[in-house]
Amino acid sequence: MEDLRKHVASYLPVVPGLLGIVLSDREGVPMVRANLKECPDPATKPAFLTSYTGSTQEQAGKMGLGTNTCLVAVYSTHQVMHCVHMSVIVTLVATSEANTGHLTTLVDTMRPFLADVSNAVAEP
What we know:
By secondary structure, the chain is an alpha+beta fold. The protein has three helices and five strands, in the order H-E-E-H-E-E-E-H.
């Protein structure tokens, strides 16, 4: 598991302002977490992560635009991006100044790795 955390941590320096990455299951239960000390701790905790998997995702789906794959919330000092890939939700926590497009590109870059993680957790 430590090797997995180190691999996730290797993505942190890719985007300036990226503070943390959490991989969780569809229920919001964290599987792997890698973050810098500047990352706000509550944003990587299950209570925050599960809020995305419930009503927020359902409400976004009611807009009639199809299934959402990524949600971004921008606060005064931070932004949080939740992206779904198969059975894994990747959460990126960054400063509000971080380039959101670069964060999205990072998730796209991570997709082969996320597919492997998703397949591993989906197997009985």
